Amino acid sequence: MNIEDGDCSKPSLFELSKENLSSILEEAGHKPYRAGQILNWVYKRFAASFDEMTDLPAGLRDYLTTKVKIRSLTLLRKQEGGGDWAKKYLWGTKGRPLVESVLLKYKYGLTGCVSTQVGCPVGCAFCASRHLEYERGLSKAEIVEEFIAMCADEKARIGRMVFMGTGEPFLNYENVMAAIDTLCDPSGYDLSRRRITVSTVGIPEAMRAFAGDSRGVRLALSLHAATDDVRDSLIPLNRMYPVGQVVEALRDYALATGQRVTVEYMLLSGVNDRREDAKALAALVDGIDCLVNLIPWNPVPGLPWSRPGALEVRTFKEILERNRIKVTLRRSLGGTIEAACGQLRREMTEK
């Protein structure tokens, strides 16, 4: 699939609501009901150009081409996994790479993992994205397009969405929330809010705002350590928002929404995978309706960490379970193409 770069002077169709589009059509003398047809083509049939919209009058298609753009991202590279089912997409504009997205297939269907920022300002020590220079947050339209472009490439509807690519979603809060509203709009893609998860390293004020704004969207906290000394070394933002404050905000979110939350915990050999780490984690999340998702570290070339062995992982999991903590072990997909958690790096090198 080749998506042509859009004219920056034209608004993106992904920025427009049905009402906005109807007004544009009506002002130009076209029937406002055509807005529904156009959105159906874009969100249900994944059209990349107005020429594909064959049930629209030719004059309307020509008019729309001069006024609105559909796609602004170019697919620069796509990789497909070998032993597991995963696809990684590198998107850019004018040949310049911007962000990566990942498509995963589970037994329950497809999940699209999207990025929210160009580069990442957080700098987690174990993550490949730490080496990317932070530039800006993605616009609402760019986030929506990431998702819809994966649907177009797969020629299928994607049933779940995770904000777990490059960037911290809550440092681009307004655009992330606007993208969610757009994708969940019944007149557009009509994605269920309960099938969306936003993953954050933990920004307490944003987490509390999200409790009121989420309306069913799930929250996952990338915790990765139960004490400040360890977490400071892994996630620099912890010096601003210590573990206690972050977990208290998580507790408040769970109580305010009545939803079970996810606690993501990347296991690094000899760093945060010891018995005492498991006990500290169990004590920290005690009383929160949560599911701890254990993630054995996915190797990143050039970083000094190592993946714990199967015995260490099993022991850590069993300690949590003995302390009545619900826990799962993440099935890692995409490792063969560096698309697993923590491996996105936005490279253009050929393999």
Question: How would you describe this structure to a colleague?
Answer:
The protein has 351 residues and is of the alpha/beta class. The protein has 2 domains: 17-67, DNA polymerase, domain 1 (Orthogonal Bundle); 75-337, Alpha-Beta Barrel (TIM Barrel), CATH 3.20.20.70. It has 10 helices and 12 strands. The protein has a 10-stranded mixed sheet with strand order 1-2-3-4-7-8-9-10-11-12, covered by helices on one side. Helix 1 crosses helix 2 (34-43), helix 6 packs parallel to helix 8 and helix 9 (275-285) packs parallel to helix 10 (310-322). The longest helix is centred in the middle third of the chain and has 15 residues, at 140-154. The chain is elongated, with a radius of gyration of 21 Å. Residues 1-6, 334-340 and 342-346 have low confidence and may be disordered.
CA radius of gyration is 21 Å
Reported for the largest beta sheet, the result is:
10 strands, mixed
CATH topology of the largest domain: TIM Barrel
First-residue to last-residue Cα separation: 19 Å
- Average pLDDT level: 90
Number of domains: 2
Q: Specify the number of helices.
A: 10
- The SSE string, one letter per element, is HHHEEEEEEHEHEHEHHEHEHE
Form type? elongated
Overall structural class, as computed from helix and strand content, comes to: alpha/beta
Strand line-up across the major sheet:
1-2-3-4-7-8-9-10-11-12
CATH C-level category of the largest domain: Alpha Beta
CATH homologous superfamily annotation of the largest domain: Aldolase class I
Q: If classified by CATH, what would the architecture of the largest domain be? A: Alpha-Beta Barrel
Q: Beta-strand percentage?
A: 15-25%
